[in-house]
Amino acid sequence: xxxFSWVGTRELWYSCVRxxxxxxxxxxxxxxxxxxRSSLEAAKRIVSVLQSMGHEVLTSHLVREDAxxxxxxxxxxxxxxxxxxxxxxxxxxxxxxxxxxxxLGFETGYLLGATQRKTILFYERGAERRxxxxxxxxxxxxxxxxxxxxxxxxxxxxxxRVSSP
Length: 165
What we know:
By secondary structure, this protein is an alpha/beta fold. It has helices at 10-19, 40-52, 67-72, 76-89, 102-114, 133-136, 151-161, and strands spanning 26-30, 56-57, 92-96, 118-124, 143-148.
């Protein structure tokens, strides 16, 4: 099991104090907005489990039904700047990559190539043949691949793979 160190921010600390939560890590959760969203329920479950563990999920909006429409109301340059700031702020990158997209590939590659951030990539076993070989073949030491068969198993895997500092 990986253990991650937490580097907090003032904003996160204030939000945790306000909500009386023990915020442990800033998590950037990656999930496709424009690609195949058939694993939306799995993505929602991951976000829910992370939040129940006390982690701040910076990108929880990605699991909303209107994520595509909401992103299209913002200039692409603003999305890029916002997401790059969140990537710089996160302690952990976790993603559901069963419906992987160019954005997920960019985020994963950027973090593994330019930072020391830990990444956890969850994917449905049945989707493995449709997922990029760059994802399922990833052997980077800061990356953990976590295949799952169902939502109940997924919840246990998230709790097991995302340890508290």
